[in-house]
Design goal:
By secondary structure, the protein is an alpha+beta fold. 50% of the residues lie in helices and 11% in strands. It has an eight-stranded antiparallel β-sheet. The chain has a three-stranded antiparallel β-sheet with strand order 1-2-3, with no helix packed on it. Helix 3 crosses helix 18, helix 9 crosses helix 16 and helix 10 packs across helix 15.
Length: 752
């Protein structure tokens, strides 16, 4: 463990200038990286002063890791799904500002005493008051300890309260005030509703209430303008008269205009009245007096200086109903009962109703325009009560914010230490306490792999994770309809029997078991010992493949020969056809098969020469090897090194480069250092099957592999070769010391 003072990165977001006394940090070396040790709350309070180059991670995702998602969402203030150093620093500082001592953050547990809150500053004092209020609401007046469970179900008891702070009032919020309840219902019907944040029932917020009351007031003001006598010559009946007048104004003006043109020139009468062709066009419709083509005809036949009939057969039937309402509501009250209307009377009638018509045209065009004046007065009478109700509900939002702050503080007290040990340092991983990125344990091929990471996209992850120089197995895990993909690092044992399609069992951090199937494998050496035997295994595998190929080819040839022989035997009883065919077409001489009775002498000679040459070469090599004398063991070691050395060297280099960083970077992390996974750590992360200490094997394996005659023959040959070598070097003569044995061997050498 070392002690150091880390420089502060200038201008970095989320940092501040250190005080006059630099903070002294402590580090521990693990995985080839200096990692900070959190000793007390002061380390957390001054985390902004730690150089971010010394942080192990610079970003982590909020999903796909074994960490409380709600806590990460509270830390992830920008809501982008990733946590970075400025957000971690801000969370640490936010918590320290509300606590008397930051040491509480290292205790964990999700339990907070009200005495731990700093009541000398506003943030801590407000939280202390809110905590006391919550404990009183929960009936815990005798306790000062607040737990995360106390506010975990706050949504339920907030929903049960009349005012929950979302500024939305429902008809039920009005209580026994029927008039206020009716106003809320009318506002929701005409201006829509918004769901209550806790109950999820429709309600009315301030914006909709203000719009509703503004429209009601506008319509009420419009009604107030109609109190003048000039606007209402008929009193309350004036509105009906004006509406009846507005309904026929365009058509009556059209009629009198046609009559004036006809008076100007009598020849225009025919053109101003419907033509026969227009009446012919009506026959193409299902005839009805109210159809549009009939309504487009003049109100009455056009003649010079004609009066407008208010009823009768000469009136356009499509306008009969509207003209009857006009005569009843406007003409009769103002001009008296009559059957016809002159143009001068029409103009006088319009002048009498023009102010009222203008007033009607100015009526607000909104959803409340059709309400009577009495209903508008009732709605406006509840305006103050409605906004007071909304304001009272909004006032509770302050308690909601404090409640959210209490939840955040309790979660940070429980989880911040874990996050720091998996973000600023990787203490949880190197002490094998279960890092948050470890998804669980995979059991496969007689091993348990603890370094497993959840994966979203296998192909994309493998492209970067391959740089970790680690043997990785990607697995698809299924459990009761759920699916999940993981990658497991095999850091110990051999990989001879790892291949796509193998099945195993995966246990997640919650202890649930999943069916795991290998879908992709990235091969890399797991140890130098494995690399030592790798060339020989490959050589044996190559021989097996070649032998299998030759055996398959020989079997195919044998099958072909048997089929030919079976065909000849089957046609042996047909000599006539064979003779006929031989007389017609002379048989071509076929190749002579090598049989026991026909042997090519040249071939035998060639084989003999080849065997002799090979024997001579082997004898020469063996002779040179025997001449090495006491250097024979060194030669054997050299041969072994020549075969296994390159493989071992490559494995050693890859094992030195084996790192955790690319595996996590491919999963969305931003690893700041080279997190090495050496052989010792790898042996802990992937443990092979071993019989427990103290266990006994009570019987030999009845199905163990027996070498038989071939094994005994091989052992005999090896022993014989060693004895021959010992006899040749006079190693077996007990009468001579080694030095004299060497002199004797030298004296018996020709030419000595």
């Amino acid at each position: 463990m070392t002690t150091a003072t880390a420089p502060v990165p200038a201008g970095l977001p989320g940092t501040h200038t250190p005080g006059p006394t630099p903070h002294r940090w402590q580090f521990i070396r693990a995985g080839g990286v200096d990692q900070m040790v959190f000793r007390n709350g002061e380390d957390i309070a001054r985390i902004a002063e730690l150089d971010q180059k010394l942080w192990v991670a610079l970003a982590c995702p909020t999903r796909g890791i074994d960490f409380d998602a709600r806590t990460l969402d509270l830390i992830d203030t920008d809501g982008d799904g990733r946590v970075r150093p400025p957000e971690v620093i801000a969370a640490c500082q936010w918590a320290c500002e509300r606590l008397r001592s930051a040491d509480v953050l290292l205790a964990g547990g999700g339990t907070l005493s009200l005495d731990d809150l700093d009541d000398t500053r506003a943030p801590g004092a407000d939280l202390a008051k809110e905590g006391r209020r919550i404990l009183d609401l929960l009936g815990k007046q005798d306790t000062h300890t607040l737990t995360l469970a106390d506010i975990a179900d706050r949504g339920e008891w907030l929903a049960a309260m009349r005012f929950n702070g979302d500024g939305v009032v429902t008809p039920a919020t009005a209580g026994t005030d029927d008039a206020l309840r009716a106003t809320i219902e009318d506002a929701m019907r005409t201006h829509g509703s918004t769901p209550d944040r806790h109950e999820q029932t429709p309600g009315l917020d301030r914006a909709r209430a203000e719009a509703f009351m503004a429209e009601a007031q506008a319509v009420r003001d419009w009604h107030a303008q109609g109190n003048a006598e000039a606007l209402l010559p008929l009193g309350a009946r004036t509105l009906a008269a004006a509406e009846a007048l507005r309904a026929v104004t365009a058509k009556v003006d059209d009629f009198f205009a046609r009559c004036r043109v006809a008076a100007y020139d009598v020849q225009a009468v025919a053109a101003l009245n419907p033509s026969p062709e227009a009446y012919d066009a009506l026959t193409g419709h299902t005839f009805d007096a109210s159809v549009q083509p009939v309504a487009e005809l003049p109100l009455a036949p056009v003649t010079p200086h004609r009066s407008l009939p208010l009823g009768g057969a000469s009136l356009n039937p499509a306008w009969a109903e509207a003209m009857a309402a006009f005569a009843r509501d406007a003409v009769a009250p103002l001009l008296g009962e009559r059957d016809t209307l002159e143009e001068a009377q029409w103009q006088a009638l319009r002048e009498r109703l023009a102010p009222c018509d203008a007033w009607i045209a100015a009526r607000p065009d909104n959803a409340l325009a059709g309400l009577p004046r009495e209903r508008l007065d009732a709605l406006l009478a509840t305006r103050d009560a409605l906004f007071a109700l909304i304001a009272e509900d909004e006032a509770a939002e302050h308690h909601n914010r404090l409640l959210t702050d209490l939840e955040k503080l309790l979660r940070l007290q429980r989880d911040l230490r874990v996050l720091l040990h998996n973000f600023v340092s990787f203490k949880a991983f190197y002490r094998r306490e279960g890092a948050i990125f470890q998804a669980g344990t995979l059991y496969l091929d007689g091993r348990s792999c603890e370094l497993t990471v959840q994966v979203q996209d296998t192909a994309r992850h493998a492209a970067l994770a391959g740089l970790a120089k680690t043997c990785l197995a990607y697995c698809d895990c299924t459990r009761q309809g759920e699916k999940m993909s993981i990658v497991a690092a095999f850091t110990a044992g051999d990989v001879d029997f790892l291949f796509a399609g193998r099945n195993g069992v995966f246990y997640d951090r919650q202890g649930r078991d999943w069916d795991a199937t290998v879908t992709k494998l990235i091969e890399n050496p797991t140890s130098v010992a494995q690399a030592f035997f790798a060339p020989y295994k490959k050589f044996v595998r190559l021989i097996e493949e070649q032998v299998a190929k030759h055996a398959a080819a020989s079997e195919a040839g044998s099958q072909s020969a048997l089929q030919t022989l079976a065909g000849r035997v089957a046609t042996a009883d047909q000599p006539t056809d064979a003779a006929a065919s031989s007389t017609k077409t002379p048989a071509k001489p076929g190749p002579i098969l090598p049989t026991a009775s026909r042997i090519d002498v040249g071939t035998v000679a060639a084989i003999g020469v080849a065997l002799g040459s090979i024997s001579a070469v082997l004898v020469g090599i063996f002779g040179k090897f025997v001449d090495l004398g006491q250097w024979i063991p060194v030669a054997l070691v050299g041969i072994v090194i020549a075969i296994s050395g390159p493989s071992m060297l490559i494995a050693w280099l890859k094992l030195r480069q084996r790192s955790l960083g690319p595996i996590l970077d491919a999963s969305g992390w931003a690893i700041n250092g080279r997190m090495k996974v050496n052989v010792r750590l790898g042996g802990m992360l992937s443990q092979t099957a071993r019989v427990p200490p103290g266990a006994q094997r009570i019987a030999p394996d009845p199905y163990r592999q027996r070498h038989g005659l071939a094994g005994a023959l091989a052992v005999t040959c090896v022993v014989g070769a060693v004895l021959l070598l010992a006899w040749r070097m006079d190693w077996l003569d007990p009468r001579l010391p080694p030095r004299l044995q060497h002199d004797r061997a030298t004296a018996t050498t020709p030419g000595a």
